[in-house]
Amino acid sequence: MAQRITNLIERTRAHRGNRVRLVGASDSPLTARSVLLPAAGIVLGADSACDVQLEDSAVSRKHATIVPATGGFEVADLGSRNGTWLDGSRIERAMVAAGATLRIGHTLVQLLPAEEAIDIPPSDATSFGELLGASEPMRRVFAVLERASGSHAPVLLLGESGTGKELAARAIHERSPRRGGPFVVFDCGAASGTLIESELFGHKKGAFTGAYRDHAGAFASAHGGTLFLDEIGDLPLSLQPKLLRLLERSEVTPLGARAPERYDVRFIAATHRDLWADIGSGLFRGDLYYRLAVVEAHLPPLRQRKTDIPILVRALLRANGAIDSEVEGPKLERLLRYAWPGNVRELRNVIARAVALALPGSEFEQMPIVLRTETPADAEPIARADVPYLEAKEALLERFDRDYCTDLLQRAGSNLSEAARVAKIERKYLYRVLARAGIRPRPSEEDA
Ligand SMILES: Nc1ncnc2c1ncn2[C@@H]1O[C@H](COP(=O)(O)OP(=O)(O)OP(=O)(O)O)[C@@H](O)[C@H]1O
């Protein structure tokens, strides 16, 4: 059973045993379903005598068996007509890693391991490196990060933008036995596929047009230290197998190199995306997820831990050179009522601006606080009468729909049922609003 350390255990509680998740491949409309895997394994096929019957014309009567084993799943093809496929290769019998996806006929079969999520009590600390917070959700995060810093295991940091994922990664490195080594940040969302490949894995002189000299790549540069893979959810699907091999073997073959090179690197990855939803829709590999998420920390959005706001404001006032003053009164009330879509980064900007605009020596209560959704007196008006009334109103409503839907889908991790719940509207109506706003949602895993 895979043991993972995390501060979010609800999902794993729901499914404790080994499972397979069956999804229709892109050319088949099959609804996703999950099946628990007994220790003896299962036979999949079109025949009604199989443990799992697949209504798929490309599946043989007795197609394949899947048996849970230590460290993965043993998969055997039973001489099927169309074969059992993994990563584009036909397999007869193989040990397959947890999280991997097989293709049988028009059906995708995800292999999901039994999990034991370890629920650790909140830490007593109210900070971890530069991360601050005394609320229970933050102290639960600190407990996970404290464990993570003592080990060599890969860490996955999840949370909305501005919740402190990069700060957490730096702090883990600083507290780990690798603190004397480099901390290398690599942003998987910042470049195109080929560029990412050479920047992350390195290249040899002459590997492609413009490769004038050898280039070490982020992995080699992090030797003896930590590689922080930011926005891992944006790593192109085509590069994910190469990263998986790197995680499994600690070796990489740079572009144009003849032999693999070995390095000693600890991995920390982060994303603001719902990776689980991306796995469901085939954008992210499940086996890579399980490799990266040995320790998984969910950084809560600021709106779920508003009791931390006074502590954060006080620290931010100090960092910006303001005099020490009580953080209370109507100004604090406003900060507590606000939803903080940009999380602590937004709070940091609001306080930095307040200090910059305030008279020297001002106390917090006298500072000008400007929040994004509040219109300051001197702000641009949202509409002008230089176009006809109906036209201006239409343009404003269009913009409203676009902004609202973009934010809504981000909050709901592109899950449309969740989005409809958050917006408190019918799903059908949500489809219409999205279409009007010209937004095409990604497929979600909501049927699983
Ligand atoms: N718990 C916290 N305590 C103190 N400061 C914080 C905390 N969380 C975030 N910050 C502040 O917010 C800024 C943004 O944090 P960070 O870059 O780590 O966020 P992130 O989650 O990695 O965002 P993104 O997903 O956009 O990269 C930090 O520079 C820091 O000033």
Automatic annotation (TrEMBL):
Pfam families: AAA_lid_14, FHA, Sigma54_activat. SUPFAM superfamilies: Homeodomain-like, P-loop containing nucleoside triphosphate hydrolases, SMAD/FHA domain. Residues 131-356 form the Sigma-54 factor interaction domain. Keywords: ATP-binding, DNA-binding, Nucleotide-binding, Transcription, Transcription regulation. The keyword ATP-binding applies. InterPro entries: AAA+_ATPase, AAA_lid_NorR, FHA_dom, Homeodomain-like_sf, P-loop_NTPase, Sigma_54_int, Sigma_54_int_dom_ATP-bd_2, Sigma_54_int_dom_CS. Residues 42-91 form the FHA domain. PANTHER family: C4-DICARBOXYLATE TRANSPORT TRANSCRIPTIONAL REGULATORY PROTEIN DCTD, TRANSCRIPTIONAL REGULATORY PROTEIN. This is Sigma 54-interacting transcriptional regulator. It comes from Pendulispora albinea.
